[in-house]
## 1
Amino acid sequence: MSSTQTVRRPSGGAAVHTVTAIELMGLTKSFGNVHAVRGIDLTVAPGEVVALLGPNGAGKTTTIDLLLGLARPDAGEVRVHGLDPTTAVRQGLISAVMQTGGLLKDLTVKETLQLTASLFAGTRPVDEVLTRAGISDIGDRRVGKCSGGQQQRLRFAMALLPDPELLILDEPTTGMDVTGRRDFWNAIHEDAARGRTVVFATHYLEEADAYADRIVLVSHGKVVADGTASEVKSLVSGRTIRATLSDADPVVVQQLRDMDTAESVELRGDTLLVTSTDSDAVARHLLTTTDARDLEITTRGLEDAFISLTSDGAES
Amino acid sequence: MTTTTQTTSTTTEATGRRVPPMGGLNATLLKLEVRRLLRNRRTLIFAVIMPVAFFFLFGTGQSYSNEDAGHGNVAAFIMISMALYGAMLSTTSAGAMVSVERNQGWSRQLRLTPLTSAAYITVKVIVAMLLGAVSVAVTYGAGAVGGAHADALVWVETGLAVWFGSLVFAAFGVFMGYLLPSENVMQILGPVLALFAFLGGLFVPLDQLGHVFQEVAKVTPMYGLNQLVHAPLTGDAPGWGAVVNVAVWLAIFVGGAVWRFGRDTARV
């Protein structure tokens, strides 16, 4: 019985746990003249929590549809744990919480979960997902009588049923109030802490900032930035330096403008505003060669990054 | 990684996860689909109340009710007609539920599960046929207490013929469910079915209508089926025209359903 070691593992099985969760390669998708996705490459490792951030119409939902096999790319390839999306869906490897719809009003919450569970080869118990989504108290309620937030939690519970490796959320908190949004994200976060890969699309900056390990900024069908929240922020040329400068000499302003790293120099009354990728050099210059005082240096926010990266070069 | 326990289960898939048999078709799904149908009050009206009410209205207590109609009386003839009408309403409305499900995004949601498209349609047709069977059984029950008389074998033969024939309209319902994007698809189909029933001769014998009407009626979807299901009672062999009529309409509705269904599920 010494030769059985290699037999049990299916071919390629050794690679299962090192394989990437998501691989998108050169993805493009157009609807008529609308180029929704224009060449997206993205690799997500197992266990990552990734925000797909972008303004409306950036191509987030189309990317998610391609990822789930709900749409077919014009070019490029989608791999989910090394499989094509449809196979991954059938095996319960990937599941999703969609934005709207997808529920039958004439079933109860619990019946919806029982029905969904019956379609998979193996699932978590219905009562368990009800609890984890925080809706065990409304199991007998008709779906049509549930609030938007409750319906969204039901979608989340449905997505948990196959115990997927990968959970996709498409703008999951649209239309929720602040409390509902926070509760929903707490449930997701608790779940992600167990090691599940989570990819969510959002146009709320604070959601991306607060809940994602990694932000993929999408604009006009392309990835324009990819990294941690602070990395993405830093892509937008550094910091803002603010100082009080009485009787400002035009020469000082010109000197600052001549610095390579200065992006903009503005004088409003006594207040000087400089944005620069090298704030140290600007500060040193101001403090050593001018009368500048009350110097303040601030990092530009994710919002600046968002606006700057998603509006610049829109037509390129 | 916390997922290693799952990969020890035996399958041929590289991920160690399984795909359900029969495309996801299962008893729980059928049970819940039937429950949904029974929650719909309109279903009850179509499947039970209308055929039974029409039978008592036209089939019993009339001067002609007990006249001879071959191997039974006229009441039995009308009972069969009304059972066919009820089965047509039932199977069409059940099949047309796909329209509501597309409207609510449920069809799309199902594509995020292992349920195959073929299994989904199979469920729709099974549920439609179950409701059709209820409709036939209830109408025949009404016939039994309402003065319909026929040979025992005629009851069985005509009952099965009505039920089996209503498959044509299950296909029609699914076809319309995919064709019409309306949530109230039965509000459109109700009058259409009434017209089919009228032209098929379910309410009024066709020979009481004008010549043009009779000619038009021969090419409508209920015409052939109506003749076939009454044949065991009347003893008149149905003409080939009736058989061709049923075959052609079945082909049109199934073909139409397959065509629209393919358009709907094609990944764009």
Note: Chain B touches chain A at residues 1-4, 6-7, 11-20, 24, 26-29, 32, 35-36, 39-40, 101, 104-106, 108-115, 267-268 (CB under 8 Å).
## 2
Amino acid sequence: MSLVTEEKELDNEPKPVVVQPPIRKRDWKLSAESFDRFLQLLDSDREQAGALYENLRQVLTTFFDWRGCQSPEDLVDETLNRVARRLEEGEQIRDLTDYCYGTARYLVLEVLAKQSKVENEPDSFQHLTASETNWAEQLERERQFECLETCLAKLPTDDRELILNYFSNERRIKIDNRLAIANSLGTNLNALRVRVHRLKARLEKCVLHCCQQASQSKISK
Amino acid sequence: MQRSKEEKAIVEYLLGQADESEQNRIETAYFHDPEYHEQILTLEDDLISDYLNNKLSGKERGLFEQHFLASHRRHSKYEFTKRLTEYANESVPKAVRMKSENTASWWSWLFPVQPKMAWSLVVAAALCGGMWWALNSSSIRSNSSQTGSAVEFAEQKPLSPELPLPTSQSSPSQVEISKQASSNGVSVGVPKATQQKTFTFTLAFSTVRGEPDEQLTVRVPAGYEAVQLLAQINDHPLYASYEASIKTVENEKIAYLTRLKGRADSNGAIVPVTVSAKQLPQANYVLAIYGITKSGQSVPLGDMLFNVSNH
């Protein structure tokens, strides 16, 4: 009897009812439907919901970071997964932001307890850590400077001059440099700080991307 | 910078000092208010700048180092701000140069930036010249029969005899050179002030006076593989280490040296900065020195403008 015939015979037999075990919390994965449900709760307009989602991610990232948690990005994923799972399970959530904050706070308690245990363990392998060579550091620094130059060059002239003036050493200039910049732009110090913060965040992102690309091209060579 | 009551509360939160109820208040606020969240991120930037500019209180500095910098994200942000500050500071001498292109005196172009540092380059170059001479003169003498060109060079007259000094600064600096020279055992050949209050250098590299609109010139003779600039930094303590950046005035990077060890002298510190002679072709340069504290903070100490000519 061939194997094919055997299989056909088996197909004709009544199949046993398989009882699926409940998905364990740790095995639960975010599906497209769950994610859509989550976005829908943020805003009915999908584009707006996407922007709110990104903002929520950033807020959560800084929350975990400011609370002293390691790997904030992983904890953000875990928080959003937990909330999405609750939604899938049918939980009624009135304020999604509040719910995320509450979930994140619980997660902090879980994580910090474990984290403090790890931190208290003796660092027996510390002596094996190879120190970075001066040369490697110098190369890295050179790369950062090159990327900084590249990214600064991409900024509009006004923005480039603003950020360089803002960060030039105040000791070099006797008067309060930043106040003088704010006055020259006809704005106040707070508005200037926020403007520079946004510029700097853009620049930092660009430099990070540039350095990563430089590293990858070096590896591929 | 004066902080409002709310900003003080946020700074405490960022430094891990807020109690639980205050934590919850701040967190509830920034989860719901993007502007408030941005305000905290801006204060994060301010804290980093204040730390780099030595504006935090002792307690805040400690918390900044122990708590704030413990986070990878914040440490990256700190490193980036540090680089940006270094870059911004290095771009200033270029701006100064451009502004002063119309000024008649090369000396008045050089000194408005950092008078002490610029003057220190003269002293440093003098010391360097002396050390190079001392190191090479013995071998020159012992090998004179084989290395005629070296002997010829050692006996060479000053390339350019005079470097006029501002009256107010000339005397102490001359004393300083003599003291340094004798303590280092290189008094022979060390350039000395003449009665006309001028310095002359004949070896390794020298500072000479060029054309009226020229800046301070370092002359590196052919045959030398390395150039050591001894940066004399007055009125500053000895730092744990130093960093030095050499760029052309057109902002082309030449070298960035880290973990440099300085040595204390009666007025501050001397930092040897050694680069390959090939790295310094004929051009105008800016040497920027940073003191690195034990906690890793970088303190800009000043810039030196110099010109390299005639290898």
Note: Chain A touches chain B through 47 residues (CB under 8 Å).
